[in-house]
TrEMBL record:
Domain of life: Bacteria
Protein name: NitT/TauT family transport system substrate-binding protein
Keyword entries, A-Z: Signal
Region forming the signal peptide: 1-23
Pfam families the record matches: NMT1
Low complexity bias locations: 27-59
Amino acid sequence: MNKLKKVLSILFALTLLAGIISACSSSTGTSSPGSSPSASADASASSSGTPAAASPSSAPEDDYVLRIGWGGSLCEAAIHIAAEKGFFDKEGLKYELVKLAPGTTFDAVTADQIDASFGLLASLIQPLSNGLPVKITTGLHTGCDKVLVKAGSGITTPKDFIGKTIGVTSYTASPYIFAKRVLADNGVDVTVKGNQVNFAIYSQADLPAALAKGAVDGIALNDPTATIAANQDNLNIIFDSAMQEPYKDQYCCSAYVRDNIITDHPTLAAKYTRAVQEAAAWAQDNKDEVAQLQVDKKYVAGDPAVNAEVLKTFNYMPSYQQAYDMFALLGTQMQSVGLLPDDLDVTALQKNSFFKPDGLLYN
């Protein structure tokens, strides 16, 4: 009897061990070449409808690191100064600066690679009308865009461009929109039907060469590239948004934040906006130091002295309301020259494109 009990005990133990081995085997699974168990688990979670990992905006606000995109532009000074002079830290904002290739900021927003950034107001309106998931939170300064011609070209007024070609970097870039606005304001038909002036796309680096070779009659650029080209190639600046009425008093550059941050973390949107407003106001009074810092810290290329002269043509006095008002003016003008659909409700787009955070320093 004792012998039978011993045999039964051994059989029970073996059965239990086999069950444990079987359970371990089925939970680990097998992975195909080049994959890993964790990758398989992530794919399984996604296919079951459960996120494999929490989205960035679901992190607790105290732990969230705001991803701020920047591209190396001179007029991004408010972001550079907010980081270097401690204005982000003063707000208690945890942040990461994300360097982007020029012209890729909206792609980074759409891909959820950044949470906040900075852009020219004219360049933002079309993407916002097409669903770019951001809200503008403040205007930061005026200036930025120029149209240049060769010395001795005979082009001195907007109407001298009739029948000629202006080189631009894209049909959504702020200099292109600025050129069209100035031409239209001076009686030149730049609608699709009228088309008294042609526009041709070149890379930014190729625009001065295209002008020198006569492939185009003028070029539209942002600063400091425009001023550098003018100095190096003896070009005449014929339109200047920083110096000419009424454009010199119109806001061009703005800060914005992704919609999901505003929904999930409005306090962070406010901290970011207050910091860049304070940094912009500081930049207004310290433009030589701003230009030197931008070059020393490798935010911007070029000669600090030249960059400082360009910065001195900008008005870095931040304002939420002036950016809001300028949006309506720009949107209406863009619609009149065919850059926005005729049936677009510009007023509704304006209201939907802004978010006013609490505690702004400059309303």
